[in-house]
Amino acid sequence: MHDHPHHDNELDEMTARARALETILVEKGLIDPAAVDTIIDTYEHKVGPRNGAAVVARAWSEPDFADWLRRDATEAIASMGFVGRQGEHMQALFNTPEDHNLVVCTLCSCYPWPVLGLPPTWYKAPAYRSRAVRDPRAVLAEFGVDLPETTRINVWDSTAEIRYLVIPERPEGTEGMDAAALADLVTRDSMIGCGQPHRPATS
Amino acid sequence: MNGPQDIGGRHGFGAVQPEDETTRFHADWEKRVLGVTLASASLGYWNIDASRHARESLPPAVYYNASYYEIWLRALENLLEAAGEISRDELSEGHAQRPGRRADRRLPAGSVAGVLAKGGPADRPGPDPVFAVGDRVRTRNHQPAGHTRLPGYARSHCGIVTAIHGCHVYPDSNGHFEGEDPRPLYTVRFDAVELYGADADPTLTVSIEAWEPYLERA
What sequence ranges are listed for the domain Nitrile hydratase alpha/Thiocyanate hydrolase gamma (chain A) (predicted)? Predict the structure, then answer.
């Protein structure tokens, strides 16, 4: 039946297992390999955290847009073209000097795909999921973030289909920067609540 | 269910390992699992709650030893087997032994962008909410053997309703193909001291989304 009967034995276990399932489904006509390629290309090259960075930069630049994000994040974000799977019901969480927001999904890996892309490995791993809701200051320290003791930490566990985007505080020294330059300062981790935006380079 | 997925607040899982945001995958097989999982959803055998239930139903020793894409792959095998589309024989052989049953529902490459952009909104018409923003509520001691989205750390604790989201599909029902049964959905905020005791961080609050059947008036 096989031209190379030992071929699978040369693959690592997970590669072999994934390939077996895909092969079976393609042979049965249940999936189109080109559709699989298109899905991969979408989340590898098109949909990622630069989308969210553009949302944050606009919120920093345009008070009316920030207000819209507060009132109806789903619509405000959709107006920039970021829609669809795992972003159907969006809420923006604005950090302030008094309140820091941090997002987790303790039960699985819920994450706002249209604005941040696929979740990073650590977001899906037990260490983050178990500790974010209990000891977020220690988790933040592992990201190099040290918040003042007086800052409240509000953790949001994504137990339903609401997805959260943290809007970090605009860094000082960014007056006059345009939205594209501001977006370059916004890190993915800062939009989960696990980091701070970059500071502008001093000239 | 009190399964391996319910780890919020648990100890012993070690340190978080941050990673550069340009890293998308760690191996080619992870990409294929992502694509095959999303494409297979179009066959219409399960919903998002049932797929989560398939993942949390893996044996704990398997779940904790698996990367998240391995969890996805194992759950997908189980979902397709339960649907009658594949067999363990086929998986060990690595080839199909008979044709697919729902090949007519195969997702074509040209439809991917539209399907991803459409997503799957979970809001539905449903009953009026019993609770109001600002109400003090207590989560029930809700421990079904099946799927639920009330995490163990937030059971039997008092919190404040901070938002109402209308009615959303009820996972405890939908995850078992027993209907969408839309129920009012709330954001409930807890103080960490209420959840974990006097030693907890006094500056910490934790918010969950809770469907009305998870709650009672405090």
Answer: 13-194
- Does B160 touch chain A if contact means CB atoms closer than 8 Å? no
Task: Give the orientation angle of helix A13-27 with respect to helix A33-41, to 10 degrees.
Answer: 130
How far does the CA of residue A106 sit from the closest CA of chain B (Å)? 5
What ipTM was predicted for this assembly?
Answer: 0.98
Contacts of B31 in chain A (CB under 8 A): 40, 44
Is residue A203 a known part of a binding site?
no
**pLDDT of A5 strictly over 90:** no
**Total-model pTM:** 0.96
Q: Which domains does chain A have, with CATH numbers?
A: 10-45 (no CATH), 49-192 (3.90.330.10)
CA distances from A190 to A95, A103, A104, A186, B21 (A): 10, 10, 13, 7, 11
Contact list in B for residue A143 (CB cut-off 8 A) is 16, 18
**Chain B residue nearest residue A144, CA to CA:** B18
Which residues are B160's β-sheet partners? B136, B189
Which pair of tokens denotes residue A68?
Answer: 């819209």
Residue from B210, B195, B190 nearest B149 by CA: B210
Name the percent of chain A lying above pLDDT 90.
Answer: 93
CA distance B76 to A12: 19
CATH numbers and ranges of domains, chain B: 28-118 (1.10.472.20), 123-217 (2.30.30.50)
